[in-house]
Amino acid sequence: MAANAVSASTKQLVDEYFESSSGVDFHMDAGFNWMAGGPQGSGVDTAANILGKACAIGGLHVYGRREYHSNIKGMHSYFHLRVSEKEISANVDEVDLLAAFDAETVVRHVTEVVQEGGIIVDSRQLNTRILEIPSLPLEFKSNFSQFMEKNEIGETLQDLLNYAGRKGIHVFPVAYTDLLYQVADSLNLEKTAKLNRMINVVTVGLSFGILGYEINTVKKALVSIFSEKSKLIDMNVRALEIAYSYAQMNFRTFPFPLKIEKSAQEERVLLSGNQAVAIGKVLGGCRVQTYYPITPAADESEFIEAHEILETKESGLNAGVVVVQTEDEIAAVNMASGAALTGVRAATSTSGPGFSLMVEGLSWAGMNEVPLVITYYQRGAPSTGLPTRHGQDDLRFAIHGGHGEFPRIVLASGDISECFYDAVNAFNYAEMFQLPVIHLIDKALANSFQTLKVFDTKQIRINRGSVVSEEMLSKGSYKRFAFNETGVSPRAYLGMKGGVHWYTGDEHNELGHISEEPLNRTLMMEKRMKKLNTVLKEIPSSEKINYFGKAGAENIIVSWGSPKGAIVEAVGELIKEGFNIGFLQVRLVHPLPVNEIVEIMGNAKHVIDIEMNYSGQLGGIIREKTGILHDYEIVKFNGRPMTVTEVYDAVKFVLVGKAPKRQVLTHGA
Amino acid sequence: MALKWQDYKTDVFVDWCPGCGNHAILAAVQVALSELGLEPHQVVFVSGIGCSGKLPHFVKAYGVHTLHGRTLPFAQGIKISNPDLEVIAVGGDGDGLGIGVGHFVNAGRRNIDMVYMIHDNGVYGLTKGQASPTLKFGLKVKSIPRENINEGINPIMIALSSGYTFVARGYAFHTKHLKDLIKQAVEHKGLAFLDILQPCPTYNDVNTKDWYEGIDRKDPDTGISKPRIYRLEETGYDPVVRNEDEKFVKIVAAMEKAREWGDRIPIGIFYKNELAPTFQDRIGQRIPFYLKNPPAKQRICDENGVPITDINLFIKEVKAE
Ligand SMILES: Cc1ncc(C[n+]2csc(CCOP(=O)(O)OP(=O)(O)O)c2C)c(N)n1
Ligand code: SF4
Question: Which residues of B291-300 are buried (b: 16+ CB within 10 A; e: fewer)?
Fold first, then answer.
């Protein structure tokens, strides 16, 4: 298994990719892994939601990841759902049960299915000739044909499944349309192509039937997912029942039964990173949110807009969030800045291309000490790059984007739970230090969903920073940018009586008027920049970093953002195996908490940098700020997130002294 | 206590060129504010970048001098958050119709209750006289090496077709008339656009004060010049939309007037429609308490910083059961 984690030539990578992943044995508690795939628009998402919810209702923990092309209908998309008794926030490489809506799904994922795993497939598609599937990209076909040749696989889907059978995989062929016709018959519906929309529910029924999971729980999940479109409920419940009992009658040989976990006591939520940020923002007091549509950021704004009217704990007082879809990202960032000047907590959300348009406005906010929050959902690659895929390419851009020098804060959440708490922190920091805060997230957090203990909101405090009152203003002339010790001057909001002041993107004096005087420039620049020290002093360590593992470990992994889930789990496993290893997650990536980092990494024997970008950006920044070099680098930039399996393998490779300095991870379809 | 125009002056040195139309516009602004009786803290001037963009520094009221072309997004963000503020956006024609034209058009779609005035001098003043989007085709002004190769655009027409509900043109040196237009723009319920012809003596040596005032067209007999500028209201032109059916007719009439240029240049109100819902009205439809308790006025936590927003509705929706 370790083989697929080694940096290697493209040719080697291709071989490993198709060779290594099938039939692996579990080296850790990977839970149960279900995957559904089909053309975009065929209901993969709904299937996953029902499955996830059914497992969550049954007291199990789930983590689900969505993969799709930048396409509305027709291209391959899939969902990987991991189910476990423990809380989890990452996927593994393996797939135990693959529910294929179409032939392409089998072709793309057959190598991920484990020995003893299963594939649910539409028996009417068995004659499909693999290399003639039109939506398969040319690069894939040429790689896959090599694989087929090497393993003496014939030309059709049936041939491929025969190969899978030889590898110990159970194949469950079902004529989906026959089951759908049964549904139609039992409800006196017409037998039209429309029925195909229920293939997703059929595969859910088949999956749970095969797994022997309690059907009422699944029904409950289905009803809750469909609740608003109740016209469809009857049909779908029937489809579920028919598929479930078909599977129960025909397939009972599957070795991975799934059981309801009765012990779950705590209240749990099942939500995506987009939703976690949205809820955090609203709780944190966001009242104006601007955005221009972009994947994967837009879901957040839409979720907020759907709940624009809020309830407050103070009776008679109503609150609401004004969500504005602007004409572009330039308008979005500047509208939010304008809003923030009035004393409202204002934010915008975007991803890379949108942030590119925002950097001029970000510089203005920096120059004018505006408490502006930008939620930055990274995706892979430059330009439109990999618009629906994963990547952590933009750390440097978030830290350096803009012209001139100005203080800012960049926070990076590592999991969905942190997305929530950091959304609140982002506003607090923005107002406490009067500067723009960039909250860095990525697609792996945005679109994945997971079960979590319900948020602990009791600990949350809102800190509005230093604000002058109208009473204070009445006493004399107010200076918005007054020089002082911390660099944070008391703020008056636009419209306050007696507080008239000015803002300008030009260098300015304490009143806010343009000034190019050298002494003023020096003092004003120092005033602004010294905030970074104030930030490092005032933010508690627990909000700057997380450390997992034994204090003073010999081997320290350092990383940031979404790889956290995979790393924490892999490290836990390695510690159990007796390795001396710890993991430092950097949450405040700018200004860099140098003291905390040096304390943890300063004496490590080996430092391993793990990131989802080509160049190991955080590793470079740490080197720049602390002089600490990392000894090993494990990176991934194929647009797919890191899995526990590959992180485990790659790190173990290092620990046993066999790894090259740089490993490039490649798993993922 | 009534305020005088001097009460809206700051100590900042006004660094525009001598003879620049901007001086007259500033005066019109200050007089308008005093006559409207607005206190300095109730008004926010938001500007872009250019000579004209410096105006807020010269006015004692809240001033937000923003980025080149981005005046309108900032201004709208302010007004949406705190509708009690009187928001007046100002900028150059390059600012608003070159780099910022997307915002210019899209602001019209929202009809936010505020004012946008463009100092229209046909050139990019602060970058030393390049052709701006309103400079007519074929003109050669002082600092451009060749004749203008682009067509000049008509801001009045763009405003009319984008949804602005008050569209007017003023002329810097008809200062009293301009002051009245500013007052009406402020009082208008909806998004008011004011195109202000602003002679730039330093770089635009074609559309000069003399040219607007027709010094080159003196009657040989009487010696009286024939001004190009004339006032719409003096011709009996009626810009007001009084019922929904009239809207289109009035827009067409305004477009027709907007085409006049050269020998006859109309100033005054081209179009005025207070029947269209403002953005505030529209938000108020969705968030009923919006006007009474707009975003900037909402409390978000108690004295101890405990958030007062109830997120149970959200949590219910994402409950695992
Ligand atoms: C993004 C950006 N591009 C270019 C400039 C340079 N710039 C400064 S002022 C100006 C033009 C100003 O012309 P106009 O808006 O017509 O105003 P005026 O100076 O004539 O009043 C330009 C292009 C800038 N400040 N920002
Ligand atoms: S360059 Fe033109 S617009 Fe600018 S201040 Fe001078 S005269 Fe006025």
Answer: eebbbbbbeb
**Pairwise CA distance, residues B66 & A506, whole Å:** 9
Which residues 502-521 of A have a C-beta within 8 angstroms of B? 502-506, 512-514
pLDDT in tens, A470-487: 999 999 889 999 999 999
Residue-averaged pLDDT of chain A:
93
CB-based burial label for B281 (10 Å; 0-12, 13-18, 19+): middle
d(CA A242, CA B150): 69
Given a contact cutoff of 8 angstroms between Cβ atoms, the answer to whether B181 and B170 are in contact is yes
d(CA A121, CA A98) in angstroms, rounded, equals 8
Identify the pLDDT of residue A30: 81
Q: Rounded CA gap, B281 and B290, in Å?
A: 9
A467 DSSP assignment = B
Q: Tokens 């594939």 correspond to what residue?
A: A119
Give the N- to C-terminal CA distance of chain B in Å, as an integer: 64
Interface contact A308, partner B, CB < 8 A = yes
**A109 and A669 Cβ atoms separated by less than 8 Å:** yes
Rounded to the nearest angstrom, the distance between the alpha carbon of B95 and the centre of ligand 2 is 14
Q: The whole model's pTM is what?
A: 0.96
pLDDT of B253 > 90? The answer is yes
What whole-number distance in Å separates Cα of residue B63 and Cα of residue A60? Answer: 56
For the question of an ipTM over 0.90, the answer is: yes
Q: Over the stretch A164-196, which tens digit does the pLDDT of each residue have?
A: 999 999 999 999 999 999 999 999 999 888 899
Strand-pairing partners, residue A65, are A80
Q: Which segment of A265-274, A344-353, B206-215 scores lowest on mean pLDDT?
A: A265-274
Query: Residue B121 CA: which ligand 1 atom is closest?
Result: 20
The whole-angstrom distance between B219's CA and the closest CA on chain A is 47
Point out which residues pair with A16 in neighbouring strands: none
For chain A, what's the residue count?
A: 669
Protein residues whose CB sits closer than 6 Å to any atom of ligand 2: B 16-17, 20, 22, 51, 121, 125, 200-203
What is the Cα–Cα distance from A578 to A568, expressed in whole angstroms?
Answer: 15
A50 touches chain B (CB under 8 A): no
Q: Evaluate whether B242 touches B206 at the Cβ level (below 8 Å).
A: no
